[in-house]
Amino acid sequence: MSDRFDGPAPLPGGVGVSRLRVYDTVAPDGLVGGTPHVHLCCTEGYVVTDGEGAVQTLTTSGFRETPLRPGVVVWFEPGTVHRLVNTGGLSIVVLMQNSGLPEAGDAVLTFPPGVLADPGAYAAAVALPDGGAPGADVRAAYRRRDLAVTGFQALRSGGPAALAAFHAAAVALRQPLLARWRQRWEAGAGRAAASTDSQLDALERGDPRHLAEAGVYAVDEPVERGRLGMCGLLDTYPAAV
Questions:
Q1: Which residues pair with 52 in a beta bridge?
Q2: Which residues are CB-contacts of 73 (< 8 A; sequence separation ≥ 6)?
């Protein structure tokens, strides 16, 4: 393997990674933590590094609360409504499918139905000053979290019909973005899968040439620290696609 640093090339499998410090203020239901939301085509995973808390999830199988403590790894598939609860210094490494798409568009917050049905109202409710860049007013993130928690409470009490209606509204809301998402997938996870397919073909032929093209890549520190995310403050790393 060479020692050149040309990078970064995409992370393994075209995933994205960030560090998350979960919000530590109280939501309308009395719990401390982040914003409930869903992803439509991405699996997301958590590796807990510090503190304690839980992730609340809602699927067609019902509501569940999974405890979080250092060393725990949790992941969930598209369609899982999820919300982080922080009971003390909860910090997480987040693994995101499709080159970090969950933080780049593939998320719908659990706002009340009237907001979800109106793209303009949704855009206004989800917006953050300066796009949530480090140093932006965190109170805007708390406001949208609180509105989403209100909707999440209604989803929990509404049963399967309420969740199905939310899923349908989320899909309708994100339809205009799907072509862009597909481009991201093709350049990231799709390209990574195709590369492995080619490498397997080469190995079956006894052809080692791709092994001579190996590179080593490193990122010394996050490209941003403290970006306002859905569930807390994000330290972000580049997603190479």
A1: 88
A2: 45, 46, 47, 48
